[in-house]
Amino acid sequence: MCGRFAQVIKYQDLKKMTEELKIKESSEQLELNYNVAPTNIVAAVVAKDDWRYMGFFRWGLIPSWSKKIPEQALINVRSESILEKPSFKTSFLRRRCLIPANGFYEWRKTDKQPFFIKAKGDNLLYLAGIYDAWYGPDGSYIPSLGIITTSANDFIQPLHERMPLLLNPSLYDTWLNPAAQNPQELQLLLTVPSEIELEMYPVSRRVNKPENNDADCLKPIAH
Q1: Which of 12, 15, 58, 182 has the most CB atoms lying inside 10 A of its own CB?
Q2: Among this protein's residues, is 97 annotated catalytic?
Q3: Considering the entire predicted model, what is its pTM?
């Protein structure tokens, strides 16, 4: 699964991301969140026609047809069943997004030790997601997203059996293209490419509490 991640995207990263993803509308600065938790507001890249922009979403998908906000936030969407469940299928076919992240946290099954997992070097990871917009009976409007998860690769497997779906740069255009709606073709994108190199290190158990949100969350600890 993916229960926490870091979205600490400073000016230079944002500028690079805007150029690489051909974003036509962006922010000068995003809120720095070292310990993103469910229901937090996160930034994601979305497209409408050929216009790509940075949107802001509640982490925890609320399907547009829901009568109320789910009691348990739908933060993760399993890739294996994404085309089977009405909660997710329409968004997968029509409303896909990329969530930029410095990395994500995972807890080792044996002792619950948290680790931070990131791309080798200082490159951002792009987590695959789907989004929707919900209108409450009181007129409230909440855009929301969920992160797609898949079976863990060999690198993550010692920690956990699931991981967020990471996309190879060559697939960004297809993923963000709202006109790409062929289920069979899109299903081919639901595996983590082997060429994405990751590294991990243990971090403080401070990340267990969402209120701890500072640079110390990302610091390696002796282990």
Answers
A1: 58
A2: no
A3: 0.94
